[in-house]
Amino acid sequence: MQTKSDKEEQSEHNNSSEIPWLVNIYGNGRRCQGVILSSWWVLTAANCFLLMNPSQVELTGSHGRFSTNTVSQFLLHRGFSSWNTAPNNDLGLILLGQPVDLRRRDMWPACIPKEQKPYDVTEECRILEQSNNETTKLLLKITIVESLSVSECSKHWPGSTNERNLCVERKKPPRHADCKVPVGTPVICSDPAISKWEVMGIDLYNNYKSTI
């Protein structure tokens, strides 16, 4: 994901439990984010593992009920290039130490495309971040973005021609908006054909690019 600093809209909601499939990942005093794919697996960025060696996953049910899970194994995408080169296939899977009980009414996995989809610049997209404020209340920060074509993206970020990357720009920035989000923060887009929001990208190590 690549962002332009002159177009953004951000809002904060107390009800972070609207998205129980969004998780916080902790290790070495740092935080990444990820999304629940199934009872055993969490999707995040490969650089999450390189940056912090994750050891714990924090889950939040739809009623704001916290629980934690251990990290059993971390698998990098076999085509991952590393953070010292142009990001490519920057995806990783976390195998949890214990399965998440998806039979609970307040916990369910994220929706992801079941097959490769054409790059649709008309889709409405959001970047989601879950964090605690000074009063330890869990907040959901939503950044509204719009997709850019590869040719339009390369005008602002030369060399950004990889069609496997999702390129977006923020809309209507508030004053003093912070554009940085944790590694592994998901980008979700609305597919009008099925009337659902799907995870289409994951934020990478440099807070400016995501990969599909």
Automatic annotation (TrEMBL):
SMART domains in UniProt: Tryp_SPc
Keyword Secreted found: yes
GO biological process per UniProt: proteolysis
Name assigned to this protein: Peptidase S1 domain-containing protein
Keywords: Disulfide bond, Secreted
Keyword presence, Disulfide bond: yes
Subunit structure: Monomer.
Any one GO cellular component localisation term in the record: extracellular region
Molecular-function annotations in GO: serine-type endopeptidase activity
Ranges where the Peptidase S1 domain occurs: 20-212
